[in-house]
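Q: Given only this backbone (57 positions), what sequence would you predict?
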């Protein structure tokens, strides 16, 4: 999150989609990002790739 240009609140940006509904998220000591879902109750490691500018989903 970054502060909004007008100084009111923060800007948000979609960084991707996940194949599950996220219940919680966190990071480990090495900075790896993880998400948890409550049904069926699993822990998932999140990874990122670089998309080409203007690429559609």
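A: Predicted residues:
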């Amino acid at each position: 999150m970054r502060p909004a240009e007008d100084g009111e609140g923060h800007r948000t940006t979609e960084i991707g989609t996940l194949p599950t509904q996220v219940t919680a998220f966190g990071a480990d000591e090495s900075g790896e990002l993880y998400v948890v879902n409550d049904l069926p109750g699993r822990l998932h490691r999140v990874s990122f790739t670089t998309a080409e500018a203007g690429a559609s989903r």
